[in-house]
Every structure is written in C-alpha cells, then in structure tokens.
Amino acid sequence: MPKTVLLLRLASLVALIEFLGHTAMFVSYVPSHGPAEVAVVDAMKSHTFSFGGSPHTYWELYFGYGLFVSVGCFTEAVLLWMTATIAKTNPAQVKPMVAMFALSEIAFALLIRRYFFTLPLIAHLTAAACLIAAYLSSIRPECPGTPLVSFQSAFSQGDRP
Mean pLDDT for the chain? Predict the structure, then answer.
C-alpha cells in the first residue's frame, strides 16, 4: 500500500476514534463536579429565549452544537477514507484536499488547546501529523509521471480552456 494511502487511512481511523469518543462522552454526560456544575446545567436547561425566531435554551444550543461536532468527525473520517482511495491511483491529485484537512486539524488543535482538554488535542495533533506526512508523501508520487498523465487525460476528454 502506498505511503500516502496508508497515512490517509490512519488519519481516517483517528477521525473515527474522535467521532466515537466525542459522541460517547457527549451523549452520556452527567454533571459530576459538584453543585455549582449542576446549577449551571440546570440554568442552561431552564431558561428559554428566542434565537433565530424560535424558542431555545442554552442547553439545546450546546447539545445541538455537540452533535454537529460528532457529525463533522464522522464526515471527516469517511471523506479521508475516500480520499485515500483516490490516492491509490493518483496521490498528487489529493494534495489540495489533504492540505485543507491538515489546516483544519491544526485549527481544531489550536481551539482545543484554548477551550478544552488534552485528550482531543492529542487526537487532532495526531491526525494533523498524518495529514502533513500524507501531503509531503504525495509530492513525489509512487508512480512517476502520474500527474502528467492525469493532466493530459483531462485535456483529452474535451475539457480544454
């Protein structure tokens, strides 16, 4: 298996672990840090206000956003696996996607470092490292001439400017 593919599959598995961990921890959350935490959660659940023209509580927004994060992690895992499949035949073709995923993981890591805790930081830094390595390994494809062949085939299909 080419190095780029292996690194992308590894990043995909890390994203899948992020999805499983975040979802399990998030949906099973119960306040456990004392009465002050219970009071905050109760306040978030009990005070309703109009947001976007609909009544909501802060808890609903918090919980909904947490579910968005879970969906995002799962989507990233699937897209990285699909990107690895593309990289099997043309590693250079996935470079822009891999770069975007790597930059996103670095941004996630910075936000996690500021607002959250160590465990997800380690996971996102691991994914970022895999993606950066995949990007660098895609610069020199395992099949010499692949980018040129891909470029030539794009123009042979009538996509000329």
Answer: 88
- Residue 16 one-letter amino acid: L
Residues in the chain: 161
* Token representation of residue 121: 């930081």
Secondary structure element (H or E) that encloses residue 50, with its range: strand 48-51
Put simply, whether the predicted model's pTM sits higher than 0.70 gets the answer yes
Inside any domain, residue 159 = no
CA angle at residue 37 from 34 to 40, to 5 degrees? 150
Give the number of domains in the chain.
1
Q: Spell out a b/e string for 20-30, using b for 16 or more CB atoms within 10 Å of the CB, else e.
A: eebbeeeeeee
pLDDT in tens, 16-46: 999 999 999 999 999 899 999 999 999 999 9
